[in-house]
Amino acid sequence: QVGRTLARAQAALAWPEGSPPSPPPPPSPFAPLSDADLRTYLGPGGRLLRPHDLRLHVYHGGVEPGLRKVVWRYLLNVFPAGLSGQERLAHLRRKAGEYAALKALLAARAAPAELALVGAAVRKDVVRTDRGHPYFGGPEDGHPHLAALQALLTTFALGHPRLSYCQGMSDVAAPLLAVLDDEAQAFLCFC
C-alpha cells in the first residue's frame, strides 16, 4: 500500500521513479540580521569591531529589509575600517561631493559622440528596469529615479572607459539605488 501511494505521489508530482524529492535545506543557523544583532558587532562610537563575523551572519541569515540601507554599505566596503558613526556620516558627505564633481567633470570632458553612445547604451537598460517596483513605477518621462539610475551608470561608464557599460549593470545598480535612495551612495556601492 505504501509503495502504491508513493508511486501515485511520484506520478502526480512528476518525480522520476525511485528518486524521492531532495530534503528541504537545513534551517539557517542565523536569523536575518536585526538592529539588535548589528549593535553587537559595533563598539564604542559605532565602530565596526568584527566585520568578518558580520559578513558571516549576513551570509547565513540575510538582513532584515529595513537594515539593508545601513548594512550594504558595510558589506560593499564603502567605509574605511575603524570609522565611528560620526566619521561615517562625514565620509558619506565627502564622497557625495566627490561624486557630484566627478559626474560634472566626466560629462564636460567627454566628447559629444562618446556621451551620446554611452548614454544610449545605458538608456536601453534603464527603461527596462522593473517598472512594477514602486520605486521605478510611473511614467518614464521625467522620472527622477530613472534619471538618477541613468546618471549613475553613465558616470560609471565614462569613469571606467576600458569597461564602459555592459548590459545588466543596471540590474545591479537598480536595487542599490532603490534601497539607498541616494544616487551618490548607490554609485559608491556599485563601484
How many DSSP H or I helices? 9
CATH architecture designation of the largest domain? Orthogonal Bundle
Structural class: mainly alpha
Strand residue percentage:
under 5%
What is the CATH superfamily label of the largest domain? putative rabgap domain of human tbc1 domain family member 14 like domains
Measured between the Cα atoms of the first and last residue, the distance is 60 Å
As residue ranges, the low-confidence spans are: none
What's the shape? flat
Mean pLDDT: 89
Rg (C-alpha, Å): 23 Å
Task: Report the CATH C-level class of the largest domain.
Answer: Mainly Alpha
Biggest sheet overview: none
Number of strands: 0
Indicate the multimeric state: single chain
Number of domains: 2
CATH fold topology of the largest domain: Helicase, Ruva Protein, domain 3
The share of residues in helices is 55-70%
H/E element order? HHHHHHHHH
Topology (SSEs and partners):
Elements: H1 2-13, H2 35-40, H3 51-61, H4 68-75, H5 85-109, H6 112-126, H7 144-159, H8 169-180, H9 183-190
Region (Disordered): 13-34
Organism: Ibidorhyncha struthersii
GO molecular function, one term: GTPase activator activity
